[in-house]
Structure of Cysteine protease:
Amino acid sequence: MFALFESWLRMHGKDYGGSVLEGEKEHRFRVFKDNLLYVNGHNEKKNSTYSLGLNQFADMSNQEFRAKYTGTKIDKNRRLKRRSAAAGTPFRYADVEAPGSIDWRKKGAVSSVKNQGSCGSCWAFATIGAMEGINAIKTGQLLSLSVQELIDCDRNYNQGCDGGFMDYAFEFIVVNGGIDTETDYPYSSSDGYCDEAKKNAHVVTIDGYEDVPANDDDALKKAVANQPVSIAIEAGGRDFQLYSRGVFTGECGTDLDHGVLVVGYGTEHGLDYWIVKNSWGSYWGERGYLRMQRNIEANSFGLCGINIEPSYAIKTSPNPPNPGPTPPSPPRTEVCDNWRTCPASHTCCCTFPIGKMCLGWGCCSLDSATCCDDHYHCCPHEYPVCNLTVGKCLKWGDGPMMGGVELMKRTPARANLHAIRQQLGRKSSTSGYTEVPSTSTVEQIAFQ
C-alpha cells in the first residue's frame, strides 16, 4: 500500500519532504489509506452507476477538501429578492423543443478544462464558461476569457478566492462593458490587485443574464439545449471528492457550495444525465467532467441542488474591435505609514510595535496575509492561523496534523522617499522656498 502511495505521489507531483511538521508524510499516508479503503468499498458495489478513484484529492480528508475546493457563496436574502424581481420576466426558451441530447463540446462552444487550484474561484470559472459558450455560439469564435479579472476586479459582492456567485459576476461584466481574454489577463490562482488597464480591455461583451426558472428540470434542459448554463451545486461530499467516472447518483443535499457549468445532457442505459464541466483540472473525473443524474421525479431541486440556481448570459450585440495586448498598469505599492512601503500585492506587518504605534515594518509577500505575533513570520490569508510551535500556517479549527503550509518570513519594508521628502521639507522664513532633503539624506534618516 505504501508503494502505491509513493507511485501516486510521483504521478501527481506531490512531495512532503520540505515540510517542517514532523510526520506530515505519515499523516498523509494514513489519510490516503482511509480514502483507498473507501474507494474500494464503493467500487465493489455491483449496482453503482459510477466509480470512485485515487485522484489528486486522495491525500485530503473530506473536511480539508470542502474547505479548500468549494467557493460559491450565496446571500439567501439577496437571492430571494432577485428571484422575486425576475418572476415576471418570461423565460426565453419556454417554447423551445429540446433535442434528446446535446453536447456543446462537440459544437466548439466549450474551452479546455481549467484548474482553479487552492483559490475558491469556482464561481468565476462557471461565469466565464457560460460567457465563452454564448460568445462562441453567436460569433463562431471560441475565446478563452479572463477568470482573473473577475477575481481581482469584481468586488462589490464577490470575494475573489474567498468565494462568490455567478449572477453577481454577470452583473459586473455587463456594467464594466465586457471582459478581457485569458491570454491578456492570465489566471494566477490567487487574489491580486485589479489591473485597470486590462479591466478596460473589453474584448467580449454580453447584454445581460437571466435565471432559469428554479426547480424545473425541463426548463434547465431547454436552456442547455440553447447554450451552456452556469449552476450551483453541493459538491463537498466524499463521493464527489473522489469521483472518477460514470453517471453520478451519489448522496448530496442542497447546501450550494460550488459553481460549475452544464454543457450538455444525454442518456446512458436508460439513465438520464447532465454533462458538467468542473474547474479541478483534467485529472479529476472524466477528464475534468462529471455526468450527473437528471430527471429525478421525487426531487424537483435536482441532484445536489442543480435545478435551484441555474443562469445564463445573454448576447445580442457584436463584440467591439479586439484592442490586442494591453500594457499592464503601473506597479502599485502597499503604504505602511509615512516612512515605509511594501511592493504591490504584499502585506505590511509591524515588526516593532510600541502600544498602538509601530516603529518598524516588514513585508509579507502575499496580499491580505496574516501577520504572526512573533513580528517575524506571516501566513497566507487562506491559512490564517500562525502556529509558531510547529512552524505552520493552519486553517481555523485545524489541528497541528491537519496539513497547512510553512510559515513565511517577512522582508524589510522600503523607505517611502517621496513621503519622507514631504515630511522633512522645510519652508524658509526668509526666502519663502521649500528646502527638500537630498535622496542620500533621506535614506540615512529612513534607515536609522
